[in-house]
């Protein structure tokens, strides 16, 4: 196979066999600095029409015709894939590998990571990340499935073929496990026919480009591991979000370590969102595969397309130029984030005019040319992707000598910061410009609902600003983010303030009512469904409702009206939990094997209420009527996510401030 790939016609830098001895680019991977690559590789993508026309050189049209069809399964058959190694067991690597394994039971998928704890968690009952439906997918691929009997269709029964089989039924044998997790990176890479690189690519914290350029250290490290250990012809797939032209960096690393050996490089950006990762992977809008215009590039792309075609219609698989593929991921995130900043800029105008940003988003979104998605005003975007990817885009633009483009995208980030800044300052101003002696409660730390990911939460910026005012305490409740993850995120503030108790004022609590008791203001920072007003919560009236509110003065604010032990919180009986939805078809669901039992001292089991249940509770609604009894008057609630029903909240006696709306009370 390697011989066949070597026969690909020469295409300059992007060709498999070409080693450009005159290259001004780095010659060893160690020379490549992540921030300098953009300047180094600020070269246009290979343009076949611009190639020197030597006698006998195939013309572009002839050449294209000679390339194998990426979408042709027969092309894929030239590069059989038996073992896939996924490097990086994080939010992308774990779920992506699990879904590929689920749909390709004949292929071994091995996820490797240097983090032993993470790998142990993937192997156990408590997965390291929370994603609806993920548990079932992992269980069936990782643990295998039970034998299954189904009614046969006509002519299908093989009576007696398997013990106990009747003419009316077919027995599907036990599904073998084909998803594995390991820290043995080198050994796994050696076996792999394809390596998906899905390691973290955060923003550089120091050095040239700090705060904007992508820190490629982990990505380069993974590439080096592959370069030194992979077998010839192993296909390298960029799944991480990387700056445009990273494919060239990969080729250079491979060439430096294994001169002359062909390793096709593909770009296959991931578009999943946290909280809906399994759904996004099972039913993707598109699968983008970027490859080089070489025979081996096309064959490699066909092999990857074939893995996806096991469950994704081929019409949704888009083979494109490798540089377009890398850039389209940054472009997609930048455009989504841009919509959020656009509606947030309008929200500031709404507050000063009496317009309502919710109504504006609705009417603007009804224009089919605009559409309703990503027009929810609020604290702005958080999470590990949007900010860093736009920062990377601005850095790339500047590196390419396009300061106007950089400034354009920078404004999306500026508006995002403005939104959370003015939210926090409004809290302070409303509480009479001082938080001394006051307790603030934060409901929701995650950057969005349905994820336990505490990275890059807008809550961090809000807390930073509140801490400047020296509050008595800040209590945080989030149904999914763990206390240790939140504290790790808050630790970046430690240089400026003592943050967490006992020295600092911040504490993370697992009971929202305890977190709210005696609070001067409750801030809703994540759009968790459990925080939204529900029908059950509406009818209860507080002892002192808005009707009898006496316009409490600052001294009223300090009047302690309750504490949790003294207040009789009549929480209604907990409603039954919403049954878990499985993404698996019914036949696979019925094949799930019983889960292994955790040891008696399992800390995860004890941290999820000690009841042995593995799921944290995100569905039991918060009873705002009860909260109204335990927070201090005049019961300030600041809704940073537009999650609450203003009329219901005011009806229960709260004073509600929402971004993008005039005050409600
Ligand atoms: N999180 C998302 O929703 C999302 C969605 C689409 C794309 N992305 C992109 O995917 C990439 C991964 O994101 P993530 O959120 O999964 O990151 P993550 O931090 O959750 O996971 C990355 C993992 O890679 C491991 N790792 C780093 N270097 C390694 C090496 N050399 N060998 C083995 N393991 C190594 C780390 O230990 C870590 O567990 C990033 O580029 C990100 O921008 C993320
Ligand atoms: O109308 C909206 C929509 C979202 N958000 C906020 O925007 C952030 C990001 O939300 P979302 O895009 O749903 O989550 P992510 O998991 O960050 O997913 C984004 O980032 C991923 C990583 O690159 C991409 O793969 C996804 O396609 C892209 O949506 C969150 O803080 C949301 O609260 C808003 O404020 N208003």
TrEMBL record:
Q: Does the keyword NAD apply?
A: yes
Location of the active site: 385
Q: Recite the UniProt keywords alphabetically.
A: NAD, Oxidoreductase
Q: Name one GO cellular component term.
A: nucleus
Query: Any idea which positions bind NAD(+)?
Result: 113, 118, 201, 241, 274, 388, 455
The catalytic activity of this protein is classed by the Enzyme Commission as: 1.1.1.22
Q: Report the residue ranges that make up the UDP-glucose/GDP-mannose dehydrogenase C-terminal domain in this protein.
A: 441-542
Spell out the reaction equation it catalyses.
UDP-alpha-D-glucose + 2 NAD(+) + H2O = UDP-alpha-D-glucuronate + 2 NADH + 3 H(+)
Q: Name any one GO molecular function.
A: NAD binding
Which amino acid positions bind substrate, per UniProt? 271-274, 329, 374-378, 382, 448
Specify the superkingdom.
Eukaryota
Per its UniProt entry, what is the enzyme's top EC class, as one word? oxidoreductase
Describe the family membership recorded for this protein in Swiss-Prot or TrEMBL: Belongs to the UDP-glucose/GDP-mannose dehydrogenase family.
* Protein known as: UDP-glucose 6-dehydrogenase
Q: Which organism does this record belong to?
A: Recurvomyces mirabilis
Lineage of source species: Eukaryota, Fungi, Dikarya, Ascomycota, Pezizomycotina
